[in-house]
Amino acid sequence: MAGSLNMLLAYLAAWITLTTILWKLRGDKENSRLAISPLMIVLRVPSSFKVFDKLRSCWLLGLAFDLGVIATFLLMAEFYRITITRLIDLMRGHTGGVAPIMPIIPGVTISLETFLYLLPGLSLAIIFHELSHALAARYEGIKVKSTGFLVALGILPAAFVEPDDKELARAPLRSRLRVYAAGILANIVLFAMVTAVIMLLTQSGAYITIIDVSPGSFAEKAGIQRGDVFTSIVVNGTSLSDVPSFMNYLMKLRAENGGTLSNVTLVVVFVKPSGENITVVKPAAPNDTADREVYERIGIYLGDAPASLVRSGISGPTAHSIFVILMLASMINIGLAVINAAPLFVTDGAQILRDIAVEKLGEDRGKLVASIISTMTLAVLLPNIQL
Question: What are 10-33's pLDDT values in tens digits?
Fold first, then answer.
């Protein structure tokens, strides 16, 4: 973890140095498609998205945008339920229950490897979120000035769509709400689609696949190889059918033996789909050994892989990677939808709340009420964030 963090910090330092030099060399260039600052690079592409005008006569699309507005309010309520429930638990001293909210910080809250798995789903979520805003704007007859992509800190992708501010402000409230909620709707739809694909791939079960084998380990000596797949693992007579069960069993066994497995003999039988078995024996460490760490593990890294992908000829590690990418894509889309629905100053939910408040209370009072609600929402959110 420390090595990954050091690599990340070195990369960020190089990125900031390079972009700062380019920023100084370019100077301020107004109306430039390429904008460079010490933290990010922005590429702006003029586009009116007139191709979407062909869909303006589709009433089902309008209905979908209305459902997006309703879904935004439902997710807003869910956001408050999650954050307030956990806040109450924290005040009572309960650390279990609802999981904390963890921002995506590569090398800090998630590993760099996990971030790479997450990147395809994150990029797809951002792109479709912004395209949906453009689609809704054109559906409501609102011009789109431009679109663009940016990379922040060299690792975080983002995209944006810029509707014409004046036309958006003059549009009826219903039209504005549709435009704001369209991005959230896109993330909900992507979440549903990816989840459906996951369910389809896993309906025939999953195999346990060997992601890697430690050189010289007990597993390697027994003949376990990277890419092997198994239907189950039997540890000291206990049959386990997936990786979480296997890991939980070892954690329990370790806890029962003073926090170590070095003094425990493990007989691990790997059951192949063909019925063939490979047995790995990890003996207890001899009393006179100087390196008890060798006897702490059998030397394998495991992952679950959809059986349907493996049967189609895809290797176990590749099938596992596809599964992880899909799972993270599903999680990131629903997570972005919930966060964007919350009224947090710059989110879509905040824009919806502000425009409704201004419509009902007048501009000054409406903006004041919206700001107060956003501040209170942020106060509820912050204690729920865990780094």
Answer: 878 888 898 888 888 876 665 678
pLDDT score, position 329: 97
Task: Render pLDDT for 136-174 as a digit per residue (tens, 0 to 9).
Answer: 999 999 999 888 888 887 777 788 888 999 999 999 999
Domain membership of residue 207 (yes or no) is: no
309 in any annotated domain: no
47, 192: one domain: yes
Domain count for the chain, please give it: 2
SS3 158: strand
Residue 228, domain extent? 215-298
Query: How distant is the alpha carbon of residue 53 from its chain centre?
Result: 32
- 158 token code pair: 């983002």
* pTM, two decimal places: 0.87
Average pLDDT taken over every residue of the chain: 91
DSSP for 303-350, written as a single string: EEEEHHHHHTT--HHHHHHHHHHHHHHHHHHHHHHHHHHS--SSSHHH
Torsion of CA 118, 120, 125, 126, to 10 degrees: 100
Asked whether residue 68 is assigned to any structural domain, the reply reads yes
